[in-house]
Amino acid sequence: MIKVVAVGDVHGMWAELWRVLKASAAATPGYEPSGALVSGRLRVVCIGDLVHYKDARAYANAVGVEPYDPTDPDHLRRAARAQIRELVRFKRFCDAAEGNVQVILGNHDDAALRHAYELSTRGGLRHVEFDPEQGGVPLPDDLAEWFASFPREVVHHGVQFAHAGPTPGMQQFDDFFYHDPDTKRWWYEKPELVRQAGHRFGVYGHTVMKDGVYVDAEHRFAMIDALAQNQFFEMLLDDDRLDYGVVRS
Q: 123: how many CB neighbours lie within 10 A of its CB?
């Protein structure tokens, strides 16, 4: 049996992420991987979207400038470097965890790596701090290689962990992904998709859960983009057991 700690989209909320890692016993008080994590008795699955702050205030706090201006190359460089510093720290933690921290590729991670799509907040704030053609700073080679290694899904004992949803199309960040309304609405309009895809249970992010982690027990999935509420999803799994709960850090 293993314990799996699933963490929703990070989007630069590093204090919240470290709080979860410590609260779940994945990290020690000194921010090192715990013995349970290194041994594999405990696994951490991060649902993706490590990069791009969610709003202008978070960007301003990161760069130390109010208001944040995504057209100012100095602001872009500061925003990129603030995130790179934390990414290096988290990568070091993951490397020390002996493969027991798995980070799923999110669409924002993919955009920061490939620059194939320019993403923005609902308010129109552009996420271009990692795009050198827009005045930003590209991911350093080691981080770019790390991002490129992220899987699009992870499966433990029949439980699927993926960024946006259960179908293969929701794991490819292309024109179809960005124009298909199902990407954001499937979980309440077509909740049967998890079962139809053949999964025992599913754990997903991508869509913000403002009221905290959402669990559909009937259709056997959880939507966990709720790190801003200091919540994470915890599971005890083997081939015959599937227990879960929502935990506040």
A: 7
Distance CA 94, CA 88 (A): 10
Distance CA(32)–CA(14), nearest Å, equals 15
Is this structure's pTM higher than 0.85?
Answer: yes
Torsion of CA 105, 23, 17, 195, to 10 degrees: 30
The tokens 């993926």 sit on which residue? 162
| H/E segment holding residue 154 | strand 153-156
Query: Domains in the chain and their CATH numbers?
Result: 2-51+99-120+139-248 (3.60.21.10)
DSSP per position, 15-67: HHHHHHHHHTTSB-TTSSB-HHHHHTSEEEEE-S--SS-SSHHHHHHHHT-SS
Bridge partner residues of 201 (DSSP): 159
Q: How far is the C-alpha of 180 from the C-alpha of 192, rounded, in Å?
A: 17
Render each residue's pLDDT in the chain as its tens digit; 249 residues. 999 999 999 999 999 999 999 999 999 999 999 999 999 999 999 999 999 999 999 999 999 999 999 999 999 999 999 999 999 999 999 999 999 999 999 999 999 999 999 999 877 899 999 999 999 999 999 999 999 999 999 999 999 999 999 999 999 999 999 999 999 999 999 999 999 999 999 999 999 999 999 999 999 999 999 999 999 999 999 999 999 999 998
Q: Where are the alpha helices (DSSP H) in 149-222?
A: 175-179, 182-189, 193-196
